[in-house]
Structures are given as C-alpha cells and as structure tokens.
Amino acid sequence: MEAYVMDKRIDYDGSQISSLWAYSAFGIQSDSIIAFRGACDVFPEHMIDLEDRRQNESIESPDMLHFIVEHFDSTDLKLVYARQRLLATIFASVLTDKGIAVERKGDDLFVDGKKLSVSIASTSAISQKIHFGVNVSHDFYGNLKDAGMTEKQAVNLMDVVSKKYVFEIEDIEADLRKSRQLGVF
Amino acid sequence: MEAYVMDKRIDYDGSQISSLWAYSAFGIQSDSIIAFRGACDVFPEHMIDLEDRRQNESIESPDMLHFIVEHFDSTDLKLVYARQRLLATIFASVLTDKGIAVERKGDDLFVDGKKLSVSIASTSAISQKIHFGVNVSHDFYGNLKDAGMTEKQAVNLMDVVSKKYVFEIEDIEADLRKSRQLGVF
Amino acid sequence: MEAYVMDKRIDYDGSQISSLWAYSAFGIQSDSIIAFRGACDVFPEHMIDLEDRRQNESIESPDMLHFIVEHFDSTDLKLVYARQRLLATIFASVLTDKGIAVERKGDDLFVDGKKLSVSIASTSAISQKIHFGVNVSHDFYGNLKDAGMTEKQAVNLMDVVSKKYVFEIEDIEADLRKSRQLGVF
Amino acid sequence: MEAYVMDKRIDYDGSQISSLWAYSAFGIQSDSIIAFRGACDVFPEHMIDLEDRRQNESIESPDMLHFIVEHFDSTDLKLVYARQRLLATIFASVLTDKGIAVERKGDDLFVDGKKLSVSIASTSAISQKIHFGVNVSHDFYGNLKDAGMTEKQAVNLMDVVSKKYVFEIEDIEADLRKSRQLGVF
Amino acid sequence: MEAYVMDKRIDYDGSQISSLWAYSAFGIQSDSIIAFRGACDVFPEHMIDLEDRRQNESIESPDMLHFIVEHFDSTDLKLVYARQRLLATIFASVLTDKGIAVERKGDDLFVDGKKLSVSIASTSAISQKIHFGVNVSHDFYGNLKDAGMTEKQAVNLMDVVSKKYVFEIEDIEADLRKSRQLGVF
Amino acid sequence: MEAYVMDKRIDYDGSQISSLWAYSAFGIQSDSIIAFRGACDVFPEHMIDLEDRRQNESIESPDMLHFIVEHFDSTDLKLVYARQRLLATIFASVLTDKGIAVERKGDDLFVDGKKLSVSIASTSAISQKIHFGVNVSHDFYGNLKDAGMTEKQAVNLMDVVSKKYVFEIEDIEADLRKSRQLGVF
Q1: Residues 15-34 of F with CB under 8 A from D
Q2: How confident is the model at residue D56 (pLDDT cuts 50, 70, 90)?
Q3: DSSP string covering chain F
Q4: Cβ A72–E75 below 8 Å, yes or no?
Q5: What mean pLDDT is predicted for residues B37-46?
Q6: Which of the 8 DSSP states describes residue D126?
Q7: Residues with Cβ < 8 Å from D97, sequence gap 6 or more?
Q8: Residue D164 and residue B69: Cα distance in Å, rounded?
Q9: Within chain F, what is the greatest distance between any pair of CA atoms?
Q10: How far apart, in whole angstroms, are the C-alpha atoms of residue F94 and residue F113?
Q11: Could you report the per-residue pLDDT of B7-32, keeping only the tens digit for each?
C-alpha cells in the first residue's frame, strides 16, 4: 500500500471519490492513500451520501486536508466502512497526542462540539474508496486552526496520518498471517 | 447485535474464543459482545496466535476485563481484524476521556509504556471472533488500577465499551444503507 | 429487517427496483420489504430482465400488489435469487392456506394455468433487490379477484406476506447462529 | 447438478452431512442431491445443531426419506440456509399437490400439527450441505403413512423432490444469466 | 460452460466486453466462451484498460481471432484475471504444440518479439468477462500468418482453444469437488 | 508476495500443505512460495485428494522439487485452483524454453507420456495452499534427469519458477488496478 502526499493544492469536487482516480491522476497501481490540501465543493452528481442529497446540504469548505483511500482487495461494504472508522480514529488519536480534545461519533470528528470533518465511503464493482476531509480553517465549523494548530502543523498531518493508515493496514495484513482458525463449540 | 455483561466472574482459558460459545453458554442467537471479569490463563491448545506458541509465551493475568465478540455476517479475515482494531480504539478513547494517557500499537494498548491488553482475532468456517482482554491489576504489566482507576470504574468499562462497540457496528450498518455506489474514472 | 406497507397507492414503473429506493422514499436504513398497491407499467430503461427486452414484451397491469425487497448484507446473485424464490413460495403458501390452488414455476405463480405474478431480482455494487408483483385484477392474466378473493382480502396480503418474509429471514439468521461447521470425509 | 436416488437402504447416522460424502461414497464430482431411505439415529459427535445437543434431544426415527444436498459454488451460510428453506418448500408443495395439508415453519414441516421432518444446514471450508429427513412412519411424530400415503407413493417422493430441487437450482442459474445489474437512486 | 464459434465474421468494437452480450446476441444462459473472427477497432467509450486511454493508444487490427469469456459464478477481480492468464497460456501452448515459438508476458503473447495479442479482463456487478484477441494478419504487429500458419489453421484455433478453455474450467470444477479442506499448523 | 528457496533438503510428508506452515517454519508473514528439494512420502492423514485415498495410491518419490504456495487474500476454492493451474503452466513453459517437450493436463505435467509431477490445492478457513512437486529422478515416472536436465539445471528451477510465479501474481495485482468496471447490455 502506497501513501502519497501531493505538493500541489487541488480542490475536492467529488470526482476524486471515483474508482481508479489514483491511477488516472498518478499512475498508481497499488492500494493507496493520497493526501492533498484544497477547498471542498462537491458537485451534486458526485454526492455519494444520499442524506446530503435529501437535505440538499452543501458540502463546502474553503480549506481542507483531504485523504482519498482506495483498496482493490475486496468490494465488501462492511469492510470499507470499518476502514473508514479506523482512519477517523487514527486522525483523532494524532490530535489527542498533540493535546487537542477531539470527539468521534461514527465517521465524524468534533472539536469543542463543532464538526471538524466530512467523510464518505463506498464501493464500485472494482474497488473500495474513502474520502476523509478535515477543515484547516472555517468560519463556523470546527477547524484545526481554531483548535490551536499552526498552518505548518496542520499541513504536516497529511504525511503523518497517511503513513499511520498504511502502517495500520500492513500491520493487520501481517497479523492475519499468524493466527490459526478457530475451533467450534 | 447484543451486548451482554456477565455478573459472575469466570476465567478466560481460551475456550471462549471458539465459535458458538455465546450460544452454548447463554443461548444467544445474534451477533454479540460478551464482557466478563476473571483471570486469564490460556491453555496451549487454545492459542490462536502462533507467535505466542512459537515463543512459548504464557498469556497470564490474575484479573482482567474480557470482551468476546462474535459476528456471523462474514468470515472475512480482513474484516474481523479491522473490527478488532476498532474495538481497541474504542477502549482507548474511553480511557482518554477519563484522562488516562493510552497508546495503541495495532491491537495492543499501552499505559506508561507498559502493555495493558491482549487480543486475538480469527475466523472459523462459520463466524468471526475477537478476544480483547485488559488487566485490572497486574504485578508488572500495565493495568487499570495503576492507571488510576478504582475497581468500580474499571468494572464499569465492561458495560460502557460493550455498548459503544454495538453502537459502532450499528452505526456502520445504517451508514452503508444510504450511500450510492461509486463512479469509475 | 423492516416491513412497511404503504397506505398510498403508487404505480410501479421500474424505478423502485433501483438500490436505495427505500432510503430515498422513506429514509429506511435497514434491510426492508416495502409493499404497495398500484398499476404496473415498466419503462424500457428500467427493464432488468433482458428476456423482456428481447421479446419487446410490455409488463403492464392495471392493479397489482407490489413487494420491493432490499438486502445490503451481500451482493451475491445466487443469494438474491434464492430469496426471490422464497418470497414466491411464501406468497403461494398463503394462497394455498386460503384454499386457492396455485402453482409455482421458478419465480412465477399461476392460478388456473394463468400467470398471476411478475418478478425480477438482481444486484448493484451495493445491494440486492427483488420486485414481486401480483395482479389484483386483470382482463386476461391470472388475478386474485378471479381466484375468489375480495379486494379487502387481496389488500391484506401485503401485510401478511411482508411479515412472513421478515420472519423467514430472521428465522434463518437465528438458525445459522446455532449450527456447528461441518466435518469433512 | 446431479440427482441420485439410492436403491439400497442405509441409515442416516450424521456422517453423511460431512463434506465430500457424495464423492467418497459414489465418486460424484458435481453439486448433488442424494436421496435414500433408512432409519435416523444421529451420533452425538455428528450433531451440527447445538440446540439438539443442549437439549440432549435424540434425533431418532425408524424409517425416513433422507435428502443430502452438497454445493461447492459458495460457502456462504446465508445461501445454504435459503436453499434449505427452498428444499423444504419444494417438499411441502409436492405434498400439497397430493392433497395433504402441510404447514412449514422455518425448516420444519408439520402435518396435523405433528412434526414431520428434521433438517440441518451448514458449511465447511469447502462446501455447503443440507440434510432433510422426512418420517415415512413413526409412532408419535408426523409421518407420510398417517398422512395417507402408500409406501410406494412415499418412496417415489425421493425421485420427485430430488429432481424438482435440481430444476430449481438450474432455473435460478439460468435466470441470473439474463438480468441486468441494478441502477442506484 | 458453453463454447460457441460464430460462423459469421463480426468486428470487435468493445461492446462485446459488456456483461450479458452472450445472452443478448445468442440467448446463451450459461457461462460461455464465444469465438469469432473480425477486425478490432475499440471505441474509446468501450476502453476498459485505462492505460490505453491514458496513452491514447488505439487498439486496431484488420483481422483477428476474438474470444469472449463470461462467468457468472463470481465477481472476484482476482479470479477473472487468473482465468485470463490461463486462457493466454492455453492459446500459447496450442501454438507451441504446432512448433511456433511463443512467449507470454502477463496477458500478452509475443512471436519473434512482436506483440501477437490484446486482452482485457474485468467485472461488473453481475459477471466476469475476458476479451482475448490474436492477430491473424497485421502489417507490423505479430500475427499467425507470419508465424507460419495457413488461414485454415488459424481459423481452426477458435474451435480448439475454446474447447480447451472449457475443459480447463470443468476440470477445475471437478478437482475442487474431491479435495479435503486443509489442516492448520 | 515472497519467494524463498530453502538451502537445506527436507522431505515432503504432507504436513507442509497445512495453513501457516510458512509462518511456523520461517516466520514468514506475507503470501509466499517456498521451494525445497527432498523426497516425497505423504502420510495418509495428510492426503488432501480423496481420489488418492480411495485408490489407496501412495504418493512417493525419492527426489523432487517442491513448491508450497500460500495466499491469505481469499479462501475461494475456484481461485486457488486457477492459481494452481497457472503455476503448472509456468513450470511447463520454463521446460519448453529449455527445449523439453512437456504436456499439461489439468494440474499434471507429462514428459514422454510419463507423469512428471504431483499437485494438490485446497483451502482452510484462513488461507489457500498449493503443493506442486516435480520428480528430479525416478525409476519409472517422468523426471527432469531423463528429460535431459543436469542436476544443477534442475535445482535451479526452484529459483526460476518461484520468481516467475511471484511476478505473475504481482502482475495480475497491478493489472486489476487499471481496469474499469464493465458496462452491461
């Protein structure tokens, strides 16, 4: 599994959640987590979460860190959602380690009771994908600056969290290769 | 999914990791998380982790909280390991909320650099299972008492963590029922 | 799993077979069976069964009972077809109990040698779906009125059959949680 | 898929539920349904259903029709249980066609409120298996003779039901090869 | 599994890689391998391999043998790619038997260092498909005529290779129905 | 995926086909192909192929090259058998390149009409495994020496074939990460 942090800023418009974006954009032919910084403005045709569509809720932010995960080892919805939760907990634990009080409810992170993140996970017939975005700054939602982070610290999270996610997945892959099957009562 | 906390103390000897233990012991016919308190002394024939076997490492503790999870919705090894990590992060976050500094590496929790927990996950042909055990007290390993918890607080974790795990799984199940499939580049 | 019978009449136009219709229409976030009454007029772009398309066969009825089933626990084609057959047998057995002679061939029901029902099953990347429709009245196809049912009795089938299907699925889920894995010769 | 009716009587002792019995006994290398007549006396070590074990309930009958199904196309528990229910409904519908009132609850058939059948389904790592047994005669349980069948009629059910089950599975396999995938809302 | 060799020539334009083409064109309701002869000119909207798209590489040939495989028993990407490689090795071994030196790299065959074949494999939500095309003649790519085959010999490969592929799949299906599950250390 | 060629000779007694042998023997925690040289003498309790058991056929050779493959990415029987065939074709093509005429039927290789190899594939609840053994020398079966290979050339095949198998699997994994999902007719 490959972690890649983009130097260039790009905006998240929802197209990056499509399967094979990592290959199309960077020629990456492994499972991957790509991190980049940019605004968030999801076009309605790219909205995966029907709740957002039903509520006609815009998903907008001027400045976010984005993580795009793609796995080709399975197209199991239960698995991609478990992995999405793991990514959220990894992000949360990095903030906790820096002394920032963060609360997780499902796939959402909160600081001071304000929503810090947006996330979606789903599958196509060929891969699993996750988008996880965190506000660097925002006028009324939770964001890393208000939580006390400098811009440099915030930007650095792209590298730290991507690597931790890759470590988690590879650690799991190693663990499951040393465990016997279960007996049955 | 059902959460059940045993009133009675029993020891974890490794037999509880077998598939259908929840049904055999309690007649439970749903996915479940069962919590109980007791010593930990795993018989070699019940050791699932071959690393422990190879190192002839005994898994012993006089007083632990035990969580036994069983899922019948899939026998995918990747999924049960992702769920095991989620359970570990849930336990860790509850300690963090109580002001206890806890570190997670894979499926292990540490306090003050000392190993607080043991865990294993695996599958049979019919179900996934997880064992997660945490020392209440211990002479040289990390434990909840040394971390500052009263016995009552420690014991209460069985209820809190079991319910949070059930919430997590049910929250995932609800989320995956409102997300469209992905497009492809 | 949730059973829901609509009070309002709506027509089945084939759009209801799409994944996530239950969520879009009713906000339902569980596996579900939705029953409603209305005409049946499937637009060609919603035809799932290519045999109908090849034969340019219209699927029309002025008055039907419709059952729309959605499962998110698997996207296995074999499983959704087995469940479709189960739904057909459940419907048939309810008629049999009321003294109506009904014959099942695959997913089709017949009374007096006339086709009583239409059905389709398939999957998307995220869910399994079944449509099962039964004529309440019809000029030349089999229908519940000609079979001797009053309108009230016919309408009542929506509730009875939906509940029996939910019972069947939940009974299966309970049964598979008390059976040991098999030995091998 | 192959249907095979044994000429010879043999007793069902629970060993026939093991994977690869059809190959071991008859050299059959396809999915199969094998029917035979004989007593039923399940040795405790072959009991798959833990409920029977817990209740220390003997599974005994002097004279039964037995159907042993094996599928190698999947090891999904949900699928083998759906197929078990289909087999039960097929058997029931054959009785209904002969004018015998039969009731199905899950995998059990009843005549005159008396239990007519026993059944179990499960998987190993390599195949799915179903056992379905029906009393030809019995002192207090439901049985085909008391339901009005001659011995010849009862014995003939082995052939009829086996063929109908094979037809059902092959009909499903054909149907799923002409249905488009679903759209998504 | 059915092998079918078309008498009529048709061109491969990429539409034949869609799921259910065999049913739409020939009413085939089994897993199948269809062989035909014709030019190759893939419309961009039918390009499955994004590498071809990225490189804006046309896939053109005036005269090819085409094999279109469809399996409905699984939608596992790993399996369809393993099957694609098997098809390539089967084709290669037939040439080898005729004294033609052929080299395989992944899914590509080479003669005299020149690319002889094109291939793609993928899945939809309902089936696996493979396209494997081999130049009968070509101005600069490898082709069967330059390799020393008469037109009749080349055309005959459609029948030979299709049958060998079907044999391979059926041989596998038989083998997996006589092997016990594995022990575990 | 890791390829490992043992320096030491060991005999294949059938125990090496068990899941987790690579971890137990070498601590390998990745998918792997292990090659070694030694006699072949399979104890009956380790016989996976019931055909051998039924025919009471001993599987013996004084001197073989052995390849033991283990994959943890799936427990699909169809996939491990397709991979087994790929391994056989890879071995065959290496011999072909060295000018040795070799014929493959299913998982068996033949030289001069004599059986050169033995092979088995199966799964446990946690992994897929393949054993592929080739006679270096033998009194009446086909073997590499009679086919004209020096001992050094024969021994070298362990390295060559293992690496080619790893390349094949990794090439597949890369290919499936650049292919769009299919359309449907």
Answers
A1: none
A2: low
A3: -EEEE-SS---B-SGGGSBTHHHHHH---S-EEEEEEEEEE--GGG--BHHHHHTT---EEEEEEEEEEEE-S---HHHHHHHHHHHHHHHHHHHHHTT---EEETTEEEETTEE-EEEEEEE-SS-EEEEEEEEEE-SSS--TTTTT--HHHHHHHHHHHHHHHHHHHHHHHHHTTSBPPP-B-
A4: no
A5: 89
A6: S
A7: none
A8: 40
A9: 57
A10: 18
A11: 999 999 999 999 999 999 999 999 99
pTM recorded for the entire structure: 0.96
Q: Specify the 3-state DSSP secondary structure of A178.
A: coil
Closest CA to B20 of F123, D54, D125: D54
If you compute the radius of gyration of chain E from its CA atoms, what whole number of angstroms results? 17
Give the whole-angstrom CA distance, residue E20 versus residue E2: 14
Q: Tell whether F182 lies on the interface with A, counting CB pairs under 8 A.
A: yes
The residue among E46, E54, E64, E23 whose CA lies nearest residue E120 is E46
For residue B115, list its beta bridge partners: B110
pLDDT in tens, E18-54: 999 999 999 999 999 999 999 999 887 788 888 877 7
E-to-F residue pairs, Cβ atoms closer than 8 angstroms: 150
d(CA D139, CA D160): 26
In angstroms, the separation between the Cα of residue C80 and the nearest Cα of chain D is 9
Residue E25: both structure tokens together:
């064109």
E60, pLDDT greater than 70: yes
ipTM entry: 0.95
Q: How far is B128 from chain D (nearest CA, A)?
A: 13
Contact C130, C80 (CB under 8 A): yes
| Closest of C122, C169, C157 to residue C16, by C-alpha | C122
Whole-number Å distance between alpha carbons of D78 and D75: 9
In chain A, which residues have their Cβ closer than 8 Å to the Cβ of B132? none
Alpha helices, DSSP H, located in A14-141: 21-26, 50-54, 77-97
List B133's β-bridge partners, or say none: B66, B118
Q: What are phi and psi of E143, to 5 degrees?
A: -160, 160
- Please report residues of F whose CB lies closer than 8 A to that of E93: 89, 92, 104
B180 has a chain C CB within 8 A of its CB: yes
* Chains touching chain C, criterion 3+ CB pairs below 8 Å: A, B, D, E
User: What is the distance between the alpha carbons of residues B176 and B165, in angstroms, rounded to a whole number?
Assistant: 17
- In 10 A of CB E24, how many CB atoms? 18
Do residue B72 and residue D77 have CB atoms under 8 angstroms apart? yes
Contact: A74, B74; criterion CB under 8 Å = no
| Contacts with D50 (C-beta within 8 Å, 6 or more apart), sequence order | A185, B20, B23, B24, C178, C179, C180
Angle D167-D173-D177 (CA atoms, 0-180°, nearest 5)? Answer: 140
| C69: closest CA of chain B, how far (Å) | 13
CA dihedral F53, F55, F56, F58 (to 10 degrees): -90
The verdict on a CB contact (< 8 Å) between D23 and E180 is no
For residue E73, the chain D residues in CB contact (below 8 A) are 73
**CA of F119 to nearest chain E CA: how many angstroms apart?**
11
From the CA of E72, how many Å to the nearest CA of chain A? Answer: 14
Distance from CA of C62 to the nearest CA of D (A): 24
Mutation to test the D interface, candidates F19, F49, F77, most D Cβ within 10 Å:
F77
Of B73, B177, B182, the CB nearest to C23: B177
CA gyration radius for chain A?
17
pLDDT tens string for chain F (185 positions)? 999 999 999 999 999 999 999 999 999 999 999 999 999 998 877 888 888 777 766 678 999 999 999 999 999 999 999 999 999 999 999 999 999 999 999 999 999 999 999 999 999 999 999 999 999 999 999 999 999 999 999 999 999 999 999 999 999 999 999 999 998 88
Q: Which of F24, F125, F180 sits opposite B125 (nearest CB)?
A: F125
Q: Do B72 and D75 touch (CB under 8 A)?
A: no
